[in-house]
Each structure stands twice: as structure tokens, then as C-alpha cells.
Design a protein that fits this description.
Layout: H1 3-17, H2 22-34, E1 38-41, H3 48-57, E2 63-67, H4 75-78, E3 79-84, E4 89-94, E5 101-105, H5 112-124, E6 126-129, E7 132-135, E8 141-146, H6 159-162, E9 167-170, H7 176-192, H8 206-217, H9 223-237, H10 244-247, E10 250-252, H11 256-272, H12 280-291, E11 296-297, H13 299-303, H14 308-318
Parallel strand pairs: 1-8, 1-9, 2-5, 5-8
Antiparallel strand pairs: 3-4, 6-7, 10-11
Helix pairs in contact: 1-2, 2-11, 8-11, 9-11, 11-12, 12-14
Length: 322
Amino acid sequence: MSLQDRFKQLKDYTESQIIGQPKLINRLLIALLADGHLLVEGAPGLAKTRAIKVLSESIEGDFHRIQFTPDLLPADLTGTDIYRPQDGSFKFQQGPLFHNLVLADEINRAPAKVQSALLEAMAERQITVGTQTYVLPSLFLVMATQNPIEQEGTYPLPEAQLDRFLMHVSIDYPGLEDEQKILELNRVEARQSAGEGEKTDVMVTQQDLFAARDQVLDVYLSEPLETYLLHLVLATRKPEPYGKDLQGWLEYGASPRASIGLDRCARAHAWLDGRDYVTPDDIQEIAFDVLRHRLILSFEAEAEGISTDRFINELLHRVAVP
């Protein structure tokens, strides 16, 4: 079985367990293949936690969920040195960040010191406690969630920290047919809960995943498409050539991390689709999630009710496709 077939099998199984959220599953797989992290925003009960948990059961690696709260401390994530009275020494006790897949649930409920500890681990792939530095696992993915409804008692992530996330995915409620399937699946699982339930076989090993990442990097991106991708990012910094109305919509555009993210994600999107080349559709499909959290709207745009998604949509219509 080829690596693409293995990932298709993984995708099909995950979609059978997470109904009505194909976009979230696709972005999780892209994040795995592009070696990045996800920020997911959606109302409670949309299977955000369940999605990464089900995915982790099918991948060789371990999973840990961290519930972010206002009283959380950085050591609760990184771990700490524990004193051993029997010999007067200190031993490092690893924290939950030393797992392969980590769910940071409601990341905006923890204060900035805790958020920065997580985001430093995401960027550097290591943590420092005292004078010692500890390397995190080679397979390390963080999926952070935010609740867009309740903002009281939250600590919004600064723009510089948001830029560390590869993608910001916004999900919505499932439709009628999907919700009916959710009810059916829930009844089946309720019957299985009397026993131990079904055990999922590992479909993708870490060796498979690292080999797939190499294949993704080899996906062909033509020079005109690369130029198109860069024009999209540059247009967020200087949108004037694409319309005077766009000029006053943004305070700051996307950083070079956006260019890297678009490149990696477009290749991964094409690879998951069974192709060894990137098309304009791959770039346009992923553009919203890669750029959404990297743009800072002007006060005038916010006053007019203009969203970052609307700005990105305008760019996709106005920047010429090769």
C-alpha cells in the first residue's frame, strides 16, 4: 500500500468517526504533513477534541489534552524539577508537552505567561527548565482551540504569537443529514460503552509520516504558481495596486511565515488529493486558513464590519491567476 493510500485510509476512517467536519480533518492531516500547528475556532460541541483524539488513535504516537484555565502555570505544561529527599538531588518530571499530539483546549483562557511557554515549545521544539534544555519529540503537533462565543475572562493571543500557528481554521455547525448520522453513531458508541469498545489499529507509523513529509516537499510547484503565491502574500502588505478600496482595510499584512505556510500547505493539499503537482485551486483553498490570523484590520475596516475573510476573498478575485 502506498503512502497516499495509507493517508486516504486514515482520512476515511477519521471522517467515519468525526461526522460533518471534513475541513477540520483535512487541515489536521495537512498540519501533520507540513509539520505545523493548528488554531481551531468554533462553538462548543463541534468535535474539536474528538477529532484530534480519533486521529491520534490511528497514528503511532501518544496524545494528551490540556485544559487551559486562568490558574495554569508554565510548569504545568513543561514539567518541573522534583526534589528527591532520599539523596538530595533533583529529577526532571516531564510535562504534557512531551507527547506527540497535544490538544490545548481553550488556549485563550490561560494568561500570557502560559501561552508563551506553549508557543515557545511550538516554535523551538524544545523547552528550558532552569539551566537545562529538553528536546521535544520529532513528531510534535499542537492543536489549540478557541471559543468564539464567550470572551469574558479570556486572554486574547497577541498577533506575534498567532503568527506561530501554521493555520487558523474556523469551523461551523453540521447540516441536518450529518447531525442525523451523529445521532446514529452516538447510539452505536453508547451500546459499545458497556464493553471496552473497539480498538483502532495504527494505520500510519511515524516512519510513514516522515516519509510522507519528504514526498510532500517533492510535489511540483511551477515557477508561475510560486510567483502567484508570493503576489498573494505581498498584496496583504501593499494592496493598493489591486484597488484603492483595499488600501485602508489593513494595518499590517502577512509575514514571510505566510509564504512558507502557503507553500507547504498547498503541496500537502495536492498530495492528499493524489497529485504530484500544485494547482491554483490548492493555493486558493488553503489561503484563508493560512492568512486569516496573520492580518490586522484597520479601525475603519472593523467599523464597517469588514472581516479578514472578506479581504482575502477580494484578493483571490483580484490577483491574476497564471
